[in-house]
Amino acid sequence: MAKITLDNLAHSYLPNPASEDDFALKELNHDWRDGEAYALLGASGCGKSTLLNIISGLLEPSQGRILFDDVDVTHAPTAERNIAQVFQFPVVYDTMSVRDNLAFPLRNRGAEPDYVARRVQEIAQMIGMEAELDRKARGLTADAKQKISLGRGMVREDVNALLFDEPLTVIDPHMKWELRTQLKALHNEFGHTMIYVTHDQTEALTFADKVVVMYDGRVVQIGTPQELFERPAHTFVGYFIGSPGMNVMDAEIAGDVARVGGAEVPLAAGYAPPAGRVQIGVRPEFVRLTTGGAGLPARVTRIEDVGRHKIVRLMAGDVELSAIAPEGAAIAADADRVTFDPAGVNVYADDWRVVPDGEAA
Question: In what order do the strands lie in the sheet with 83-86?
Answer without folding.
Answer: 83-86, 161-165, 194-198, 37-41, 210-215, 218-223
